[in-house]
């Protein structure tokens, strides 16, 4: 029996306005993957790089009737040079999205998290959650109504760990994913401080195998953490 896609959206009460955006993001992931599957191409939008992941979230915003701007120049908080007092510097904001009710400025990171037998299955996640949080602190409060650290998490593991005979077992792969999701317990950067998140693990995640490295990439998670104060 074919597995169903494993998807989830969870937002803090304060972040409920993110729900339509995250739902659109899930839809964009599914649409991209299905379109390529229909042409016999095993491609997905999460196994490329951070820039590609940002572009898909921007696309999800437009898809939902928001507007979006990527990688635009702006001034940021921080040191100009180490010997000077704290001041503005020239930089870029990864993504700005807005509708008529709310605007969001984001700094993003992408975590390539190994979840195999001999892997510490949260190290890269913790590092990138912290890095995204740090960079978001450099954005000025006037950049948007809210500032969010956005972390795209791409779990991956050796295909050999989920093979049944000569092929990847969808059920073994799903079991590994569920174990990892339980381990991450809400993707909190700091214990006791909830964050909003969404994830997408398609029913055919076994298709996303890098044949050169023997690594399978079954899906993606997006963690959104608001930063109210700067660094």
From TrEMBL:
Superkingdom per UniProt: Bacteria
Official protein name in the record? Uncharacterized protein
């Amino acid at each position: 029996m074919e597995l169903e896609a494993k998807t989830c959206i969870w937002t803090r009460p304060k972040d409920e306005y993110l729900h339509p955006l995250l739902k659109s993001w899930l839809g964009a992931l599914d649409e991209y993957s299905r379109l390529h599957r229909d042409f016999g191409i095993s491609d997905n939008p999460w196994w490329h790089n951070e820039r590609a992941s940002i572009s898909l979230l921007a696309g999800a915003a437009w898809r939902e009737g928001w507007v979006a701007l990527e990688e635009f120049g702006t001034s940021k908080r921080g040191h100009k040079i180490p010997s000077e007092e704290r001041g503005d510097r020239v930089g870029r904001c990864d993504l700005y999205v807005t509708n008529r009710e709310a605007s969001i400025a984001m700094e993003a990171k992408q975590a390539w998290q190994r979840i195999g037998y001999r892997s510490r299955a949260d190290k890269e996640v913790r590092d990138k959650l912290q890095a995204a949080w740090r960079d978001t602190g450099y954005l000025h409060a006037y950049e948007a109504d809210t500032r969010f650290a956005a972390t795209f998490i791409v779990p991956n593991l050796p295909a050999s760990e989920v093979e049944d005979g000569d092929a990847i077992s969808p059920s073994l792969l799903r079991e590994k994913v569920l174990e990892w999701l339980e381990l991450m317990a809400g993707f909190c950067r700091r214990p006791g401080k909830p964050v909003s998140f969404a994830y997408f693990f398609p029913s055919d995640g076994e298709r996303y195998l890098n044949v050169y490295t023997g690594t399978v990439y079954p899906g993606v998670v997006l963690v959104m953490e608001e930063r109210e104060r700067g660094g």
